[in-house]
Amino acid sequence: MNEFTIKDLENLSGIKAHTIRVWEQRYSFLKPQRTETNIRYYNTDELKNILNISLLHKYGYRISHIDRMDEEEVKEKIISLSFAQAQQERIVNELIQHMVDLDIDRFECVLDNYIMTRGIDKTITQIIFPFLDRIGILWLTNHINPAQEHLVTNLIRQKLIVGIEGVVSHFNVNKTVMLFLPEGEYHELGLLYVSYLLKNRGAKVIYLGANIPLEDVEFVSKIKHPDFIYTHLTSVAGNFNFEKFLTRIHKLLPNTPLFISGRLARTHIRKIPPGINFKKSLSEVMEYIASL
29-61 b/e with 16+ CB inside 10 Å = b? Predict the structure, then answer.
């Protein structure tokens, strides 16, 4: 059984913890358990409830009205939401629910249906990355089981690779880009998406993969001479020193531009060596690649 903190519910649903506490006092749809030290925690069913309720509330339903609905009526109202953004959020919520249930068949079915109707590009931007963004905090706080993470990420990885292999670009930017993840970083999904965007733009991609020593990056770079190098840092090992990483890669490859995106790029505030560039959001990444 999964256990979630009120902060997890806030991150996943977008509803502030204070509001969740008020709802608990006034309505009956949330009944958290408490630890011996009186800290709230929530089970899988309560997570599903808050996801459904937050979606209906966001698109116009009053909480007092939702509280009077039974489970089937809540589902019917969610399916009837006609806004495109609401439908996308509903699908992301479904993926989260299937993940915590370890219902991988349904998880894959949801993705396949969206790919069939909207294509892989829209599936990635509208569904997969919003999903990853919302559950990423759970990976960092260990509030989902590693088995859930592995099953979900491997499935998404397969979809991204199929999308990359199927790219037929109408552009040719005459750029070569080398992609890698440093030692201790195994979360490939962000880097695979960048690979997809680059291939779609007509760039030549050299994909080294995850957990790559910087000596190997240097070796390949000196042979292939990429126009720039790219890495995406999500959740590196605990002994990873970002400052040392930046200094060392600049020393090894001082004349090759390096682009970094991901959580560490978003939160870094110190001065960075010349030739290193941070992309702090998905939109910044997409805008840069579109400008090549």
Answer: bbebeeeeeeebbbbeebbbbbbbbbbbbbbeb
Cβ neighbours of residue 223 closer than 8 Å, sequence gap 6 or more: none
- The parent domain of residue 223 ranges over 168-290
Q: Give yes or no for a contact between 188 and 181, defined as CB atoms under 8 angstroms apart.
A: yes
1 within some domain? no
Domain boundary among 164, 186, 217: 164
Give me the number of domains the chain comprises: 2
User: Could you tell me the pTM of the whole model?
Assistant: 0.75
In the predicted model, is pLDDT for residue 141 greater than 60? no
101: amino acid identity, one letter: D
pLDDT mean over 208-215: 96
C-alpha 275/C-alpha 268 separation (Å) is: 16
**Residue 132 pLDDT:** 79
Structural contact between residues 196 and 165, judged by C-beta atoms closer than 8 angstroms? no
Written as six digits, the tokens of 275 are 């030739």
How high is the pLDDT of residue 143?
58
Does residue 109 lie in a domain region?
A: yes
